[in-house]
Amino acid sequence: MYVKNNWAFVVYKFVLLAVCGYGIACHMNGDWASFNYYTVLSNTACFVYFLTSLVVNIRRMAAGESVETWRPRVEGAVVFCITVTFLIYHFVLRPEAFRMGNDGNFYSALNMAQHYIVPIMTIGDWLLFCPKGKWRKGDPASWLLIPLFYFVYILIRAPFAGNIGGTSSPYPYAFIDIQANGVGVVARNALLAAVGMLALAYILYAVDMLLARAGRKRKMR
Description:
mainly alpha, 0% strand, single chain
């Protein structure tokens, strides 16, 4: 059952936007090449979605209406994208940095905001405020198209655009670096990532359906 409180709904999103905006602003004031990273793009997607939701609901409140989640199915895609950011950072990139002895920057305020606070708050928004049972069975599979398009973009960009600013590689992440690992290894990594992300998408869907069912049972009592 999601929380029905106008001000809690609005304030939560305002705080989430502030954290998300901090991360994006750091990149906009620096190297625009940062927008080649999935992390930055997924945080930007969160910012655009929640900003739109906040504006729509402030207008609803001004008109004397109750708040409501703006397009729950879109929020599902946003939750999936930013959860992928959190999981890959925590279970793939962070352990690799520790192994290579380059873990210091992983504790920066920017990294914590983009890889932990924004994902956790986005998941929290879904659990607290988003009506359950609105997602369709095919939605989780469609969410997978987002990282797929990103992967294809990186593959096309790399041979033509050169190294990403401030790095020695045209690839933003080591596990998809064809120059360093070869096509076979990257293809294997991409396949494993796709299987994992599809499983994640349907886990989120299953949780949403279970919460919707639990909510219906409570209303019947």
